[in-house]
Design a protein that fits this description.
This protein has 9 helices and 12 strands. The protein is of the alpha/beta class and 296 residues long. Helix 4 packs across helix 5 and helix 8 crosses helix 9. The longest helix is centred in the C-terminal third of the chain and has 17 residues. The protein is globular, with a radius of gyration of 19 Å. Bound molecules: NADPH dihydro-nicotinamide-adenine-dinucleotide phosphate. NADPH dihydro-nicotinamide-adenine-dinucleotide phosphate binds next to helix 4, helix 5 and helix 8.
Length: 296
């Protein structure tokens, strides 16, 4: 495999020299156990790119310095995870339209002197949903109203969903997300307060768990009455560890098609990879790497 650089990566005057690897990173806290570095480095190697991915523990009070350092050292970009997705916004030069709508950034891209904020979470979700069901014209119920829910709701609406229902425990957050989606995308969106086991409407086409219930907890139960979910409904979970959550097991037992969170994880990373490098990554390599890392 050639170890020389692709000439496309030499045009940027902010990169000090072509003779060192290009660097991207992830800022988060706590960030140990995040599978992205393992997945990205496998994909860089498969593409023959001299790029490196660093996972960096950055506390909230260190974020501004970390972003300054990233700029000074000519990093090509980076990912942001908990708790930095919103706090990073004032430190960037501009946002993409989608990140601006969501008010959250999971991916920084350096273009010349500018650092641009993008959000690939929702796009990654929609890319993994489409081979299972095209969201165009579908009635979608989304459980949760946190960062992942914002990204998934906006991109699912932009992908052509006919209507959205946001179900959330905290009234303020759920109501705010329903209003945001409707205002920004024009797709009719309602909020339902979550009390006890959620009873799904009989005409739901896609049901998505965007809460953190089940994360690192194979027995974590999402309070949904699956007797009300039609077997024709596609049921998706954004939780990727474990890949087969209790929520997806219950959906399968009901006869529904299911979609795990690994597809979203791989796709959001693949979109970032392509944006940083200009090269389409091998998604099968990325999926294998994540499964190996998580022992899925
Ligand atoms: P947030 O903390 O921003 O939001 C968590 C959401 O879960 C809130 O809506 C919260 O409700 C709800 N929630 C948590 N516990 C309960 C409970 N016991 N009962 C009812 N609702 C509950 O987290 P994120 O949105 O950032 O992340 C959510 C999940 O998405 C995580 O598991 C994360 O790993 C996953 N994720 C997956 C990605 C992938 O690529 N597959 C990418 C990004 C995230 P309330 O508002 O009432 O507190």
């Amino acid at each position: 495999m050639s170890r020389s650089f692709d000439p496309r990566f030499r045009k940027d005057p902010l990169v000090p020299t072509d003779d060192i690897p290009q660097i991207v990173c992830c800022f988060g806290q706590p960030v140990a156990g995040n599978p992205t570095q393992f997945m990205m480095e496998r994909a860089f190697a498969a593409a023959g790119l001299e790029w490196r991915y660093l996972t960096l523990e950055v506390p909230p009070e260190g974020l501004a310095d970390a972003v300054r350092g990233l700029r000074a050292m000519g990093f090509r970009g980076g990912n942001l995870t908990i708790p930095h997705k919103v706090a990073v916004i004032p430190l960037l030069d501009r946002l993409t339209a989608a990140a601006d709508m969501m008010g959250a950034v999971n991916c920084m891209i350096r273009e010349g002197k500018e650092l641009i904020g993008e959000n690939t979470d929702g796009k990654g979700f929609v890319e993994s949903l489409k081979p299972v069901v095209d969201p165009t014209g579908k009635r979608v119920v989304l459980l949760g109203a946190g960062g992942a829910a914002r990204a998934v709701a906006i991109e699912t609406a932009l992908a052509g969903a006919a209507q959205l229902t946001i179900v959330n425990r905290s009234l303020e957050r759920g109501d705010a997300l329903a209003k945001l989606v409707q205002d920004k995308t024009g797709v009719p969106t309602t909020f339902v307060a979550w009390q006890g086991d959620y009873a799904a409407p009989g005409d739901v086409d896609v049901l998505i768990n965007c809460t953190s219930i089940g994360l690192n907890d194979p027995s974590g139960r999402v309070p949904v009455d699956f007797n009300t979910v039609p077997p024709s409904c596609v049921v998706a979970d954004v939780v990727f560890n474990p890949a087969e959550t209790q929520f997806l097991k219950a959906a399968k037992a009901r006869g529904c098609k299911t979609l795990d969170g690994l597809g979203m994880l791989v796709n959001q990373g693949a979109i970032a990879f392509r944006t940083w490098t200009g090269v389409e990554p091998n998604r099968a390599v990325m999926r294998d790497a994540v499964e190996e890392f998580l022992e899925a």
